[in-house]
Write a structure and sequence with these properties.
Elements lengths: L1 H21 L9 E4 L6 E4 L16 E4 L2 E7 L4 E8 L2 H14 L6 E7 L1 E8 L1 H6 L5 E5 L2 H15 L5 E9 L2 E4 L1
Antiparallel strand pairs: 1-2, 3-10, 4-5, 4-6, 7-8, 7-9
Amino acid sequence: MCQKLLSRLLVLSVLFFVAESAMAEGRCPPGQYPIGDHRAPGCAPIPSGVASDSQQGPVATGKWETRWGAIAEDSSTLTTGAAFSMKSKRRAVSAAMEECSRLGGKQCKLRLAYHNQCVAIADPSTESLARSPGQSMAVTAETEGKAEGMALTQCQAYGAGQVCNLVYSACSMSEFKAF
């Protein structure tokens, strides 16, 4: 009899603790937690940053796609073709070569291909070329302004301080595409 009584007390105490832990959110409905005290009780929604069984973390809503640019030139005629924001290097090179030919270039060659950045070209002015030889500079950088500044600086440095003009600049930055 005593054994039976002890086992019933044990079962009741276990049930009491299980029932108490099942009411962990207290007086609030599912998805909310108690706030305040006994003088001003209330409930607040569980913040979305707290992981629950139904949340699996952030879900991707898209992806970043690489964009290409290219510059083609015919050095004998100084004809330049350019392409930017293309989905592949092959497309960018092909478009730049086609534009160079369309503009009169007979022997167009790829000068530069780039992706997810900006490009600028600076050429020596015709007056500067009459005084001293110079060279056209094509430079890539993370912003258009930086590329332009670097192209002008390098063009002037190569030509011993000659006057250079910015002749082209563009960016082919990666693009976010939503799913």
